[in-house]
């Protein structure tokens, strides 16, 4: 799996987790979803992604975006 796909998969899992927490635990977990969305937007414009840095250190092969 490439680094790009790992980051996208991680982002998808985190969004689903945050929606689950918002619905079943507490409505204020919606801010977790907002944080994930803002992080994805800033990553699209700046190219800086903390998750990509972590996955790169874990040995995922580079992709075209990161």
Residue stretches low in confidence (pLDDT < 50, at least 5 long) are none
Order of helices and strands: HHH
Secondary structure class reads: mainly alpha
| Rg estimate, integer Å | 13 Å
**Roughly how much helix do the residues carry, as a percent range?**
over 70%
Keywords: Membrane, Transmembrane, Transmembrane helix
Protein name: DUF2892 domain-containing protein
Domain Inner membrane protein YgaP-like transmembrane: 2-56
InterPro entries: YgaP-like_TM
Structure, explained:
The structure is a single chain. This protein is mainly α and 66 residues long. It has one domain (3-57). It has helices at 3-24, 30-46, 50-57. The mean pLDDT is 94. Residues 2-56 form the Inner membrane protein YgaP-like transmembrane domain. This is DUF2892 domain-containing protein. The chain crosses the membrane at residues 7-25, 31-55.
Topology of this protein?
Elements lengths: L2 H22 L5 H17 L3 H8 L9
Main attributes?
66 residues, mainly alpha, single chain, elongated
Task: Provide a concise account of the structure shown.
This protein is mainly alpha-helical and 66 residues long.
């Amino acid at each position: 799996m490439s680094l790009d796909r790992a980051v996208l998969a991680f982002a998808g899992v985190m969004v689903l987790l945050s929606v689950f927490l918002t619905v079943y635990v507490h409505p204020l977990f919606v801010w977790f979803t907002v944080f994930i969305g803002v992080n994805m937007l800033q990553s699209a414009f700046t190219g800086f992604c903390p998750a990509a840095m972590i996955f790169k250190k874990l040995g995922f092969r580079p992709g075209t975006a990161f």
